[in-house]
């Protein structure tokens, strides 16, 4: 199911990520793979394949949307929980609900910066000396829809442990429980290749916000297939112009 470049990416993901690896080993393998697939020429070949209708456009469109954290989330390859490959297009100054939230993930992840630059902060909960007061939520998916639901879990204090910038050509990997916040750090859009992996996914993530209360649920609006394919074509043109 897919063109030559889609099938090659699937084989690479399966070979690197299938099998029993500890979380740190899985994150390291994901980082190596996402850097290989994120090389501009190789990524462009993959995007061109997908934009022509190869792969699974219906399934991938249904899991692609504008994320509440302020970026376009385009699913490229759905390989189950062990290998979900996405392109993220980050827009400078995107003012969406949750864009300032500190959060973790359901599974280990790796990300490669293809174009532009990301800034990222890492945090840990520290009720003794944490200098950031925040409201804590448990975020999960609604049972009968793909909407995000947010359950208040009380106040918390967080401590900043790392602040970094990730320019084009750099990558990082994070275990599932790592608390972080990332944003586009340039005046132009930033493109990243993002890989989630792991045999099992956590039932919820932890979300911390200092920006005031959140609504109890946030709608997740998937892309229609024509809009998904058009977004891939626009991404391909963005990569060619770089």
What does this structure look like?
The chain has 5 helices and 13 strands. With 242 residues, the chain is α+β, with helices and mostly antiparallel strands. The chain has helices spanning 4-17, 23-37, 40-51, 57-61, 225-241; strands at residues 65-66, 71-78, 84-90, 102-103, 109-115, 117-125, 132-141, 148-167, 171-174, 179-184, 190-196, 205-209, 217-218. The strands form 2 sheets. Strands 4, 6, 7, 8, 10, 12 and 13 form a 7-stranded antiparallel sheet that branches. Strands 1-2-3-11-5-9 form a 6-stranded antiparallel sheet. A hairpin with a 4-residue loop joins strand 1 and strand 2. The two termini are 30 Å apart.
Which class of secondary structure composition applies to the elements? alpha+beta
Average per-residue pLDDT, rounded, comes to: 88
Query: Count of helical segments?
Result: 5
Q: Span between N and C termini?
A: 30 Å
- Helicity, in percent? 25-40%
Mass-distribution shape = globular
* Percentage of residues in strands: 35-45%
Number of strands: 13
Secondary structure blueprint with pairings:
Elements: H1 4-17, H2 23-37, H3 40-51, H4 57-61, E1 65-66, E2 71-78, E3 84-90, E4 102-103, E5 109-115, E6 117-125, E7 132-141, E8 148-167, E9 171-174, E10 179-184, E11 190-196, E12 205-209, E13 217-218, H5 225-241
Antiparallel strand pairs: 1-2, 2-3, 3-11, 4-12, 5-9, 5-11, 6-8, 6-10, 7-8, 7-12, 8-13
Helix pairs in contact: 1-2, 1-3, 3-5
